[in-house]
Amino acid sequence: MRIVIPEKTVKFWGKGKSDQEPAVSADFQRALTQEVMATELLRIKALIATTALLALILWTVYLVAPEAVSRVWHGNLKPHYLYSIIVPFILFELWVHGAIARHMRQGRDLPIFRRYLGALIETSMPTVALALHINSMGSVAALGFVVPMTYFIFIILSTLRLDFWLSTFTGAVAAVQLFCMAMFYHSPTGVEAEPSIYYHAARSLIILICGVLAGAVGHQLRRQFEASIKAATARDRITNLFGQHVSPQVVERLMAEGTKTDSDTRRVAVMFVDFRSFTAGARTRTPQEVVDRLDGAFAVLVDILDRHGGIVNKFLGDGFLALFGAPLQAPDPAHRAVAAAREMLEANERLNEVTSWPLRIGIGIHLGEVVAGNIGSPRRKEYTVIGDTVNFASRPEALNKDFNSQFLISEAVRDALGEACRDAVSLGEVEVRGYERPMAVWRLA
What we know:
By secondary structure, the chain is of the alpha+beta class. About 60% of the residues lie in helices and about 15% in strands. The chain contains 14 helices and eight strands.
């Protein structure tokens, strides 16, 4: 498995590197679809709110200044004219909102033809209103009044569709319908006061350009959504692979470095940590007390591991297996592991001074080559390490009980540390369970 982070810089008109990947996960597609439909619901709510606000303003003007309204509309504006457009439009938007919400609950996307049909119907509403205004005010006054400007409301809000072609289609429908209305009501008598065909063509062209620009903005927003979702998907994949205990800092480094997680051979330091006599102490305490004590201790120890470049590969009841050198490369895994272990012992002593349940740690470290990679079923894999190094690393930790010690290392770790490990005390060659010949073990303070 290779962790691939999408490129931040992509070609606008073509496909960027992230688009050329042969397969996109179903989780990514599902998340992207949900985000697009959520913004579509936001667009519909904005349209309904804007329409209701415009209706309120027009109704207020009609009641407060009826004489001015009568002069503008030549006495032809009636309340039912207003509601004959606004009410059906709001009902249509509520129906679309319900359809999209239903598809979201079912995890399905809207068919593309329904999106274009909805855009056509919505953008035609100002055209119907314009026709009523022309009948009331005359073509010159109506085409120069506010109704043609309402096309921009639909064009601006079309950016929330996050689809370049849908926004362009919205602009094109508005431009064509406005131009056709102007030409249909164009006076053939050549009245001098009436704008020429080039005037209406120029206005329609501006509307079309606005639609294209809105599409460009929506396209860029969609790119950002995709990048965010892919980053979140990669982060979740890493967390699932290494476990929820992987720190955010480690996840970010794995994402930034694109760390290879295919099976390979690595030289790592393997650390086993266990709390001595924890089971006996847990018998006299409630389950919640046990969990709280473990959580508190693990929080301190794992934080120390993070700072020294190690990760917890597995929690093992009242202990854990930690790695230095995998999956993140480390030039000196033995030094890092020993430094972390020393600090963990000191931190545990400080923690014991302020708690009613002191815990004694046993730590064992071994250094060697392991096979590191993904192990598991096709549906659920886990990053782990396999090999004799891992098997032997658990033995020094277990020997702490026999020697009444807290920190034992193998000879491989002692050799790797060199002069940095002058306080190491040799315990000689010790019989190790599962191995035919004795192994040299060293104790550290």
